[in-house]
Predict the 3D structure of the following.
Amino acid sequence: MEPLKIKSELQFKAVRSSGAGGQNVNKVSSKVVLSFDLKNSQALSEEEKMRLETKLSSRLTSDFVLILNCDEDRSQLKNKAIVTKRFLDILTVGLHIPKIRKATKIPKSVIRKRIKDKKNVSEIKKSRRKPDF
């Protein structure tokens, strides 16, 4: 994954933000909509595309386009920076390959200790019983 190459493939669109804000909301297009076409990306290998397709399946459209919105700030530039950072974070999480867990062997000393403790508890419980004549 090359961040600079991917950033060049991003498409940004400025839209009017919703919600309260009065005259500013009605005049200024501060909301930023980021779209990234996963299928036609040149920056990602086929393997990376397949991995992202499975991991981000709930976030992708039917055309395999990832769409992110940001209207947290009143500044369009800040919203663009926020949505770009969010996109890169999503990509890094999506491309992360988890380590394969290796099963470890239980040491014999641990097994012996567990059996010894069980016998000890058993003896304590036996001593609490009524004597059997």
User: Anything to note?
Assistant: Helices lie at 3-9, 23-27, 46-55, 76-95, 108-128. The first helix runs from residue 3 to 9.
